[in-house]
From TrEMBL:
Native source species: Actinacidiphila reveromycinica
Keyword Metal-binding among record annotations: yes
Molecular function (Gene Ontology), one example: oxidoreductase activity
Keywords per UniProt: Metal-binding, Oxidoreductase, Zinc
Protein name, per record: Putative dehydrogenase
Pfam family, one: ADH_N
Gene3D superfamilies in alphabetical order: Medium-chain alcohol dehydrogenases, catalytic domain (3.90.180.10), NAD(P)-binding Rossmann-like Domain (3.40.50.720)
Chain ranges of the Enoyl reductase (ER) domain: 7-338
Length: 340
């Protein structure tokens, strides 16, 4: 089969890879219907994360089950499935506590590589969620978004305790930040401030439910949020970038007693303990336990309540995977969908 492989920074290719097969009895193999390029894939593509050997790429996927191992009971060949970027058993104590992305037996799909024609899914019963019947093609982008960015935005909002009546600020206008706006709206936030400088992303944020847009960054951005909130800061701030500047902006934009949910993979982020202590801000983040939210998110998509698939502004055949990376790297595209 063919799959995307990162050979060196800036050099991603569609290579011939070994066909996946059921290895453990809890595995399934899916035929990929759609995959995509994640903002976090760009850390390696840009050389920020070292590339030491040819690396299969991608951790977001929807597909049709081809084959299951002897111990798989909940998913069957022919079913259309969505899964998260960590395989999880969904039965261990961490899973039962709602932290499937910290499953005691978790396996990262990123190490398997989902930008490929077929994918082996470990712990298939715990990882995959089947849709009722085969969904209409129009739903594919939004179902794919649930595999990571929508689930991650959802977690950011829950981690920051977004709820009815709250004022929420979203730092980051990438796919996760935009999905975080959807999550804040669905969870009943009264005011949702999208922090964005790009006209097309501001427009999408507004259509997703943002009530205000702040274009300033850094100290000026923080000052704007305080100005809009009677001088104190937002109840909840969702940090969806992962840089030092974004984290500082998030922490200082939250009110005393407020919450920051951080889901951008931190790169060079240091949090000052004394400043955090004095701020009275609560901080929770990490890789999102997307599996916990998948049944609910899939239902919201199929009911037409949410359409996070609109973050895909580039739709390419898998052959053009290199162009997908280039377009996202150059910020010509928010997120690239790939169809094998
Ligand atoms: Zn588990």
């Amino acid at each position: 089969m063919r799959g995307a492989v990162l050979h060196a920074p800036g050099d991603v290719r569609l290579d011939q890879r070994e066909d996946p097969a059921v290895v453990a009895p809890t595995d399934a193999v899916i035929r990929t219907v759609a995959a995509c390029v994640c903002g976090s894939d760009l850390w390696g593509y840009r050389g920020v994360d070292p590339v030491t050997r040819p690396t299969p790429m991608g951790h977001e996927y929807v597909g049709v089950v081809e084959e299951v191992g002897a111990d798989v009971e909940l998913v069957r060949p022919g079913q259309f499935v969505v899964g998260s970027f960590f395989a999880s058993d969904n039965t261990c104590p961490n899973c039962l506590n709602g932290y499937q992305s910290n499953c005691l037996h978790r396996q990262p799909l990123g190490a398997i590589g989902c930008q490929a024609e077929y994918v082996r899914i470990p712990l298939a019963d715990g990882t995959l969620v089947a849709t009722p019947g085969t969904p209409d093609d129009a739903f594919i982008p939004s179902l794919l978004a649930c595999s990571d960015v929508m689930g991650t935005g959802w977690y950011a909002a829950l981690a920051a305790e977004v709820g009815p009546g709250k004022t929420v600020a979203v730092v980051g206008d990438g796919a996760v930040g935009l999905c975080a706006v959807i999550a804040a709206r669905e969870l009943g936030a009264e005011r949702i401030v999208a922090m964005s400088r790009h006209a097309s992303r501001q427009r999408l944020a507004t259509e997703f439910g943002a009530t205000d847009v702040v274009t300033e960054r850094g100290d000026e951005g923080i000052a704007r949020i305080r100005e809009m909130t009677g001088g104190i800061g937002a109840d909840a701030v969702l940090e969806c970038v992962g840089t030092e500047q974004a984290m500082a902006q998030a922490l200082r934009s939250a009110r005393p007693g407020g919450n920051v949910g951080f889901v951008g993979v931190p790169h060079g982020v240091a949090v000052d303990g004394r400043e955090l202590f004095n701020s009275h801000v609560a901080l929770r983040g990490g890789p999102a336990p997307v599996r916990a939210y998948l049944p609910d998110l899939v239902e919201r998509v199929l009911d037409g309540r949410i359409d996070p698939g609109r973050v895909f502004d580039l739709d390419l055949p898998l052959e053009q995977v290199a162009e997908g990376y280039r377009a996202m790297d150059e910020r010509r595209a928010i997120k690239a969908l790939l169809r094998p």
